[in-house]
Design goal:
This protein is α/β, with parallel strands linked by helices. The chain has nine helices and ten strands. It has one domain: TIM Barrel.
Length: 285
């Protein structure tokens, strides 16, 4: 199992310089990854700093050498697919092939969509996400590509340079759980699944069921057993009780998790608690 730090891009995480500093600390402390949320406004009544995740990740790519970096999760339905393809290919090369792209529909409610005129209907956003992923996959290949969909159109174009990673930048699909199989089917076609509930964390028993169901869907789709696939668990563990932290994460590993995302999200509590958890290191067995 690998272990990552998961940080909101607002509040204490709303300063890109702070995020770079935390990412450096995470690498020194032995974490395997550093992932950022993707919000534009969060809530119109809040008065908090918010950082652009792509700008912050580009700076983090230059300030680190080993850890993976990425989004948990980028709301693709509010972004132009070709722009995302260019940003992610550049970021993958800038980081030396360390990018993982976590994607999703965006939060079901709130200002991130309705406030700026983006699509609010969840079913429509799901269709937009699927088309966006198809476009990303096509453009990342660095070969002539065209696409005609309901929501997006790409006239024949060749995007160069390609990302460094082969066969592509890993794509993790995030979704709120429990719920219908649609997000699981989508994730099964890509490289990983990031389930969460409304509070951000998923009960162990729900996670275990999703692991089994994604496995079934991948077998039904004819995916070879040896093809890598990540099941990503999220939660918070204490900085001052290593035994408790290890026990929590080990239970998810035994249930099939390949990544643990440590949510360091005390975004109103100041920097010190976040830094303390990061510097305590990952909860390896």
């Amino acid at each position: 199992m690998q272990h990552a730090v998961n940080v909101p891009n607002f509040g204490t995480g709303g300063d890109p310089r702070v995020l770079v500093d935390l990412a450096r600390s995470a690498e020194v402390a032995g974490w395997d990854g550093f992932f950022l949320w993707d919000h534009l406004l969060v809530d119109p009544t809040w008065r908090v700093d918010i950082a652009d995740p792509w700008i912050a990740l580009a700076a983090i790519a230059q300030a680190t050498t080993r850890i993976r970096l990425g989004t948990i999760v980028a709301a693709l339905p509010r972004r132009r697919p070709a722009k995302v393809a260019r940003e992610t290919a550049s970021l993958d090369r800038l980081s030396g092939g360390r990018l993982t792209l976590g994607v999703g529909l965006g939060w079901p409610s709130g200002a991130d969509f309705g406030w700026f005129g983006d699509e609010e209907d969840v079913a429509t956003r799901a269709a937009m996400l699927d088309e966006s992923l198809a476009i990303l996959d096509g453009l990342w290949r660095g070969e002539p590509f065209a696409f005609e969909g309901t929501h997006y159109r790409v006239r024949e174009a060749t995007f160069l340079p390609r990302p460094l990673q082969e066969p592509r930048i890993p794509v993790w699909v995030g979704a709120l759980r429990p719920g219908p199989d649609g997000p699981l089917r989508r994730a099964a076609r890509w490289d990983g699944f990031v389930p969460a509930d409304e509070d951000g964390f998923l009960p162990l028993e729900v996670f275990r069921r999703d692991v089994a169901r994604v496995g079934e869907l991948r077998r039904d789709a004819g995916v070879a057993p040896g093809v890598p696939f990540d099941m990503v668990a999220m939660g918070s563990t204490p900085a001052d009780d290593r035994a408790a932290a290890v026990a929590t994460v080990a239970a998810f590993e035994d249930a099939g998790a390949t990544w643990w995302q440590e949510s360091v999200s005390d975004w109103l509590g100041g920097l010190d608690p976040m830094r303390a958890r990061i510097e305590a290191g990952p909860p390896h067995r």
